[in-house]
Description:
5 helices; binds glutamine; 200 residues; single chain; alpha/beta; 11 strands; Rossmann fold; 22% helix; two-stranded antiparallel ribbon
Amino acid sequence: MIGVLDLQGGVQEHLDHFCALNVPTRTVKLANELNGLVGLIIPGGESTCLMRLLHVFNLFEPILQAHQRGMKIWGTCAGAILLSSSGFKLIDIKIKRNAFGGQLDSFSSEKLIPAVSPTPIPLTFIRAPKIIHVGSDVKVLLRIENYIAAVETSGILATIFHPELTPSLAFHKYFATKCGVSVSDNDGKFAWNRQSWMRH
Ligand code: GLN
């Protein structure tokens, strides 16, 4: 089962994407909800706020321990910031917050990321950071001009963009496979209901 950290940020969209792949998920607000997870998503949102809530909810140490026991973690945007040297320090990357400017400088594009999908993947950047340095053990999945946008190690995946805010399932499929979870085969896209978060 894959967990989605449910303290703040874009939770429902990750759940929707895994649901479309028939990957079982659970939201995580409490430390005992980490039990038995093979993977955890730290979603996009606001990294300062998320970091405070991780301590308020006593989740910081339990997440580190679960990772040491083998739980893989994927951080999107603010989640990537939390995995870096400014947070959990679980991947050797340096990251610059809000590196594209303010909210109005948010944008979408599309790139080919051969390790993840044979077809170009839509990318959504929202007040995104830039990865500006990676350690020698970090694999770069996507480099754009003078910054790095997606990286991984055996236990960690970090993206500065939001695959959960696009109709593409490629990254969710990639992460589930990395966690050893089988996914239902499809063409990599689905009819995503963008209003699904309103149910909550
Ligand atoms: N700007 C946010 C931060 O620095 C990240 C934005 C996002 O997750 N989309 O935490």
